[in-house]
Amino acid sequence: MHSIIDADPAEYRQSLGELIEHFQRLMRETRRLIGRSDRAEREMQALAQQLAYRASHDALTGVLNRSAVIERTTKVLRISSAVMIILDIDEFKRINDDYGHPTGDAVISGVVDCLRRIVGEQGFIGRVGGEEFTVLLPGHEPASGAILAERMREAIGDSLVVPPVERRITASFGVSINEVGTCFDTAYGLADAALYRAKRSGRNRVEFADR
């Protein structure tokens, strides 16, 4: 039996070279597998983020969907007062009937663009129905909520043009002022009742909840 010391130097170098080459192959394969695992993990994380986004956002407009509006409003009202605004596009069914659903979708997207310009980072916009939206303004006083609601109404009524719609596009608004601890149903219900009054009073106006 030969020891390493007794081995022929050439054979030893060859054996060592083979071991090094084998080790390098293993290292390359390990790095390849690690890279593949890292890529798979990044892809899974990206997919999870996409799924979470789609689960909480409206597909057409990218604003919060109804379930996300409820969740976000509930969380905000646990720790802060907030103004809730509900708006509804006036005579939207006629727009859909006269011009078709693609035009109706364009009107909805145009309304959301108007809201985004006014609200910015001050609050959260949501779509809770076909042509109905909410805007939640955490920490806002009644006066600032009123100003923003009026600015939204004017932005839609005065500047929103969606061909081939020939009539003026307007929206009606209901506003509730909510103290910390108010539940979602109360905040929404008060604003919705005010919206109903705005519709009954001629549309294209802002009404405040009685409370």
What does this structure look like?
The chain has 211 residues and is of the alpha+beta class. It folds into two domains: 1-55; 66-208, Reverse transcriptase/Diguanylate cyclase domain (Alpha-Beta Plaits). The chain is 59% helix and 14% strand. The chain is built from six helices and five strands. A five-stranded mixed β-sheet has the order 2-3-1-4-5, with helices on both faces. Helix 4 (101-119) crosses helix 5 (142-159). The radius of gyration is 30 Å and the shape is elongated.
Short description:
With 211 residues, the protein is of the alpha+beta class. The protein has six helices and five strands; from the N terminus they run H-H-E-H-H-E-E-H-E-H-E.
**Helical stretch count?**
6
| Quantity of strands, as a count | 5
Low-confidence stretches: none
How would you sum up the global shape?
Answer: elongated
According to CATH, what is the class of the largest domain? Answer: Alpha Beta
Strand order of the largest sheet: 2-3-1-4-5
Largest sheet: 5 strands, mixed
Strand content: 5-15%
CATH topology of the largest domain: Alpha-Beta Plaits
Along the chain, the helix and strand elements come as HHEHHEEHEHE
Structural class: alpha+beta
List the helices and strands and how they pair.
Blueprint: H1 9-56, H2 66-79, E1 82-89, H3 92-99, H4 101-119, E2 124-127, E3 132-138, H5 142-159, E4 171-178, H6 184-200, E5 206-208
Parallel strand pairs: 4-5
Antiparallel strand pairs: 1-3, 1-4, 2-3
Pick out its properties.
211 residues; 2 domains; 5 strands; 14% strand
